Amino acid sequence: MALKVKCPTCGRECEYSEKNPFRPFCCERCKLIDLGAWAEGSYVIKSKNQEADDDLDISEEALATGKLHSKVKPENEM
Ligand SMILES: [Zn+2]
Fold it and tell me: What span, in angstroms and rounded, lies between the C-alpha atoms of 57 and 71?
Protein backbone atom coordinates (compact mmCIF):
# COMPACT_ATOMS: atom_id res chain seq x y z
CA MET A 1 0.00 0.00 0.00
CA ALA A 2 1.30 3.40 -0.97
CA LEU A 3 1.25 6.29 1.42
CA LYS A 4 -0.43 9.31 -0.05
CA VAL A 5 0.47 12.88 0.84
CA LYS A 6 -0.75 16.22 -0.38
CA CYS A 7 1.63 18.05 -2.67
CA PRO A 8 2.77 21.24 -0.83
CA THR A 9 2.63 23.20 -4.09
CA CYS A 10 -0.69 22.25 -5.70
CA GLY A 11 -2.36 20.25 -2.90
CA ARG A 12 -2.94 17.27 -5.15
CA GLU A 13 -2.65 13.83 -3.60
CA CYS A 14 0.49 12.06 -4.65
CA GLU A 15 2.27 8.86 -3.79
CA TYR A 16 4.87 9.18 -1.07
CA SER A 17 7.19 6.35 -2.00
CA GLU A 18 10.47 5.58 -3.69
CA LYS A 19 8.49 5.46 -6.92
CA ASN A 20 8.03 9.20 -6.65
CA PRO A 21 11.43 10.94 -6.76
CA PHE A 22 9.76 14.33 -6.30
CA ARG A 23 8.06 13.46 -2.99
CA PRO A 24 6.48 15.11 -1.14
CA PHE A 25 5.65 16.90 -4.40
CA CYS A 26 3.45 15.27 -7.01
CA CYS A 27 5.73 16.04 -9.94
CA GLU A 28 8.99 17.69 -10.95
CA ARG A 29 7.17 20.90 -11.87
CA CYS A 30 5.72 21.36 -8.37
CA LYS A 31 9.14 20.70 -6.84
CA LEU A 32 10.72 23.30 -9.10
CA ILE A 33 7.98 25.82 -8.27
CA ASP A 34 8.73 25.36 -4.57
CA LEU A 35 12.45 25.78 -5.22
CA GLY A 36 11.63 28.79 -7.38
CA ALA A 37 9.85 30.39 -4.43
CA TRP A 38 13.10 30.12 -2.51
CA ALA A 39 15.03 31.58 -5.43
CA GLU A 40 12.53 34.45 -5.60
CA GLY A 41 13.18 35.18 -1.93
CA SER A 42 16.90 35.57 -2.57
CA TYR A 43 16.12 37.61 -5.68
CA VAL A 44 14.25 40.14 -3.53
CA ILE A 45 17.37 40.58 -1.41
CA LYS A 46 19.41 41.00 -4.57
CA SER A 47 17.10 43.69 -5.97
CA LYS A 48 17.40 45.52 -2.64
CA ASN A 49 21.14 45.77 -3.24
CA GLN A 50 20.41 47.03 -6.74
CA GLU A 51 18.71 50.06 -5.20
CA ALA A 52 22.18 51.35 -4.38
CA ASP A 53 23.05 50.91 -8.05
CA ASP A 54 20.02 53.00 -8.96
CA ASP A 55 21.51 55.87 -6.98
CA LEU A 56 24.65 55.52 -9.07
CA ASP A 57 22.49 55.63 -12.19
CA ILE A 58 21.12 58.99 -11.09
CA SER A 59 24.60 60.46 -10.70
CA GLU A 60 25.48 58.96 -14.08
CA GLU A 61 22.45 60.72 -15.51
CA ALA A 62 23.70 63.97 -13.99
CA LEU A 63 27.06 63.38 -15.64
CA ALA A 64 25.27 62.73 -18.95
CA THR A 65 23.42 66.02 -18.54
CA GLY A 66 26.72 67.74 -17.86
CA LYS A 67 28.07 66.17 -21.03
CA LEU A 68 25.09 67.54 -22.93
CA HIS A 69 25.86 71.03 -21.64
CA SER A 70 29.53 70.73 -22.61
CA LYS A 71 28.36 69.55 -26.02
CA VAL A 72 26.25 72.69 -26.40
CA LYS A 73 29.14 74.97 -25.46
CA PRO A 74 31.38 74.25 -28.51
CA GLU A 75 28.36 74.91 -30.73
CA ASN A 76 27.95 78.35 -29.13
CA GLU A 77 31.65 79.03 -29.65
CA MET A 78 31.29 78.29 -33.34
ZN1 LIG B 1 1.80 19.24 -7.21
Answer: 20
Q: 30: annotated binding-site residue?
A: yes
The answer to whether the CB of 30 falls within 8 A of the CB of 22 is yes
CA distance 34 to 4: 19
Residue 67 counted as domain residue: no
Domain that holds residue 30: 3-40
Q: How far apart are the first and last CA of the chain?
A: 91
Distance 8 CA to ligand 1 centre (A): 7
What's the domain count of the chain?
Answer: 1
Any known ligand binding at 10?
Answer: yes
pLDDT in tens, 12-56: 999 999 999 999 999 999 999 988 877 777 656 566 655 555 555
Question: Does residue 16 sit in helix, strand or coil?
Answer: strand
pLDDT given for residue 36 in this prediction? 86
